[in-house]
C-alpha cells in the first residue's frame, strides 16, 4: 500500500478511535453513576485508548514521512502530527492533506485513487 493511502486509512482509524474514546467512553466512565450498566460499558470501552495510542504512533511516522516526501512546511507537518490528539480535528486535517497532495504533488496519490 502506498504512503498516501496508508496515511488516509490511519487517519480515519485514529480519528474514529479517538472520537469513540473521548466522546463516548470517557463520559460514560466518568460522568455516570459508579457501578451502573452504562458506566461499566464506558469502563470496558476505555480499552480503545490503548489501541488509539499504538495506532497513533504508526500514524505519526506515516504522516511525517508523507509530509517530508511532499516537502511541506514545519507548521503544516505539526498540524498533521497533532491532529490525532484532538477529537474530530483529524478528519478536517485529512481532508486538507488530500486537497494539498492532489494540488501540489499528484504523483504521490497514485493511479488508483486519482
Q: Could you characterize what this model shows?
A:
This protein is mostly helical and 114 residues long. The protein has one domain (3-108). It has 5 helices and no strands. The chain has helices spanning 3-31, 37-45, 48-70, 74-82, 89-104. The model has no long low-confidence stretch (mean pLDDT 91).
TL;DR of this structure?
The chain is an all-alpha fold and 114 residues long.
Layout: helices, strands, pairs:
Elements: H1 3-31, H2 37-45, H3 48-70, H4 74-82, H5 89-104
Residue share in helices? over 70%
Mean of all residue-level pLDDT scores: 91
- How many runs of DSSP E, i.e. beta strands? 0
Uncertain regions spanning at least 5 consecutive residues = none
Q: Separation of termini?
A: 15 Å
Gyration radius, in Å:
17 Å
List keywords for this structure.
114 residues, mainly alpha, 5 helices, 75% helix
